[in-house]
Write a structure and sequence with these properties.
Length: about 150
């Protein structure tokens, strides 16, 4: 059950997120039989961030919407990534803060053995702070979960 160094899904999700050449990065990841997408979301409500990422993952065929285990795995990866961005307190508007984030979602098998199955990674990067322009700072988060 060795984790292949070249197939670290969390690392690749962060690299995709920060890449200025997302299409080239996605094409390279497709050669590993992985699928991913990238998008943006801004909100004062955490559930809107979750919804935007879930919608992008479904629209891009990363998860099958009719399989609960896939939606559930994605949800946990999103929440783990949000914990990083919000420093452990997944609250936004209720404590007067907002986020402007770029996100990446990546699905694939990070192991040498194909029977290990797919994992999903969600990476978030952007700003968080008071809902006043100029009162924000950078933040990043990563969540990885098995499907």
């Amino acid at each position: 059950m060795a984790l292949n160094k070249e197939r670290r899904i969390g690392r690749h999700a962060v690299l995709l997120l920060l890449s200025d050449e997302s299409e080239g990065e996605l094409e390279r990841l497709r050669q590993l039989d992985w699928i991913g997408c990238k998008g943006k979301v801004g909100s004062m409500e955490a559930h809107k961030v979750v919804a935007a990422i879930e919608t992008a993952a479904k629209k891009n065929g990363i998860i099958q919407p009719d399989l609960y285990r896939e939606s559930h795995a994605l949800y946990h990866a999103i929440m783990e990534a949000l914990h990083g961005v919000t420093r452990g307190q997944v609250q936004l508007g209720s404590v007067h803060r907002t986020v402007g984030l770029t996100f990446a979602v990546l699905r694939g098998n990070p192991y040498e053995n194909a029977q290990e199955g797919d994992w999903i990674a969600v990476s978030l990067y952007g700003t968080i702070g008071a809902p006043v322009k100029g009162s924000e700072h950078e933040a990043i988060g990563l969540g990885v979960n098995h499907i």
